[in-house]
Amino acid sequence: MTRRADKRKTRGALSNPDSRFATHTSATFDDGWGTLEADDDPPPATHVHNDPARRVISRNSSPDVGFDYSINPYKGCSHGCVYCFARPTHEYLDHSAGLDFETEIYAKHDAAARLEAELRAPGYICRPITLGANTDPYQPDEHALEITRDLLDVADRFNQPVSIVTKSGLVLRDLDYLTSLANRGLVNVFISLTSLDRELKRSLEPRAAAPARRLTTIQTLANAGVPVGVLVAPVIPALTDAELETLIARAAEAGAECAGYVMLRLPHGVKHLFREWLATAYPNRVDHVMSLVNQLHGGRDYDPSWGTRMTGTGEFARLFETRFELACRRHKLSHRTAFDLDCHHFSPPPTAGDQYTFDFDG
């Protein structure tokens, strides 16, 4: 059974440590008047900031991920997953990787307009664009802002292939665009699935969709003809790894065509936030979990080396890889994290004032 402070039951991080780039830092201490016991502060609210950008397509050169282009409509993520490897990026904005990452959200309101301009640029070479490589494109604020939906509208009009990674059922809102793109081989969706344990999910990923909702999302997408896969991510040793075979089986039953996995990654301050959560939620497992995490990353909480940072090294990593391959084979899932998308249809639609060309015979 997990235990959390009541006021933060809808947040993942239990604290808000200073950014590693901060010039000045502060620390909470007991002044003898019992103020630390009087926890009367309201739950932290979410603030959405405008994040204008000259460009929205990010280029990737890492050999560990299967895409060259990506777009993140949001910085920060109010899903609040305590393990999120993207948390340290908020420190570049002078925010904390803790609660600030979940509550100070930066939204690219003009993302669709910027994307359209980039797709029309003379030097643009069409390649699939991944939505949600860093933070979820279907996090709660997307309900009202519809930034991701506007991006799909651009992709649909330009015949631009896109790949989506999410743990939200909100992706089904855009089934109209997804089916349209799927009919031309221009889209795929990967649903991130960490655990089927509702209590664990509620503490680990407080504002993300419930496990059953994610399985239903896979099924609905598959039934609509949208290529869909599952990402077992992150795999947390001695906490979620025992669910691997069940997760693969349930995803295959729902209609997933392929599967991938990512081992727990704890860069920079995430390792402190995760340890804090683990000590509160599962105090009897801290030593076991962190011992296995260290074994995966060469004796450290995290090893950023390309080629191994996603899967880890050592005996535990090899054993898990074997289990994963056997589970995929048993349920006829290909173990990959990308579909082949068709870039040959890319064609910017004409704009107002464009001169049309005519073909004449003879």
| Residue runs with pLDDT of under 50 for 5 or more positions | 1-7
Rg computed from alpha carbons, rounded to a whole number of angstroms: 22 Å
Structural class: alpha/beta
Helix content: 25-40%
C-alpha geometry:
globular
Percent of residues in beta strands: 5-15%
- Intertermini distance: 79 Å
**Beta-strand segment tally:** 11
Largest sheet: 8 strands, mixed
Rounded mean pLDDT is 89
Number of domains: 1
* CATH fold-level label: pyruvate-formate lyase- activating enzyme
Order of helices and strands: EEEEHEHEHHEHEHHEHEHHHE
Strand order of the largest sheet: 2-3-6-7-8-9-10-11
**In CATH terms, what is the architecture?**
Alpha-Beta Horseshoe
Quickly name the level 1 CATH class.
Alpha Beta
Number of helices: 11
What is this entry, summarized?
This protein is of the alpha/beta class and 362 residues long. The protein has helices at 99-103, 111-120, 142-145, 147-158, 175-182, 198-204, 211-223, 244-254, 270-281, 286-296, 315-330, and strands at 47-50, 58-59, 69-71, 74-75, 104-107, 129-131, 162-166, 187-193, 228-235, 258-263, 334-335. The strands form two sheets. An eight-stranded mixed sheet has the order 2-3-6-7-8-9-10-11. The chain has a three-stranded mixed sheet with strand order 1-5-4.
Attribute tags:
3-stranded mixed β-sheet; disordered N terminus; globular; 13% strand; 362 residues; 8-stranded mixed β-sheet; alpha/beta
Task: Describe how the helices and strands are arranged.
Layout: E1 47-50, E2 58-59, E3 69-71, E4 74-75, H1 99-103, E5 104-107, H2 111-120, E6 129-131, H3 142-145, H4 147-158, E7 162-166, H5 175-182, E8 187-193, H6 198-204, H7 211-223, E9 228-235, H8 244-254, E10 258-263, H9 270-281, H10 286-296, H11 315-330, E11 334-335
Parallel strand pairs: 1-5, 3-6, 6-7, 7-8, 8-9, 9-10, 10-11
Antiparallel strand pairs: 2-3, 4-5
Helix pairs in contact: 2-4, 4-5, 7-8, 8-11
